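lol ok so funny story. i was supposed to be doing the assay writeup but got distracted and ended up predicting the structure for this chain instead. priorities right. anyway since i did it might as well share w the group, maybe its usefull for someone
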Amino acid sequence: MEKSISRIPIKFEIEGGGEAEGEFVRHLAPRTVEALVKELPLEGRAALWKEEIYFETQVKMGEEKAEPTVEKGTIAYWPMGKAFCIFYGNSQPYSPVNIVGRVTNNLKVFESVKSGAKIRVEKIQF
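and the output, tada:
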């Protein structure tokens, strides 16, 4: 991954499950991405909904370019639940989400995450 101000590389550490990589993409939802980056590292306990993993954050944002549908591999912020979301399958959000990035490596690791597992999201340092 090349260093860029518009793309911020991140990694996911899943308790008992391994690691994955992704990136925040500023232009998708600039204010939401900025708020999430300021809070890094993010940590939470996984909640499961269909083929989505989410956990509550301290970030309080409204809708920003919110979308009712997402693609597999999408990283999003869910304003209604103040939650960080990873869509690893073909499920769709409960309500519109602010799309903030994509999982770029090892999306399959999320398929085996158990409810309550600790997830840590941090910036990759170069």
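Residues 7-123 form a domain with the Cyclophilin fold (CATH 2.40.100.20). The chain has a mean pLDDT of 95.
back to the writeup now i swear
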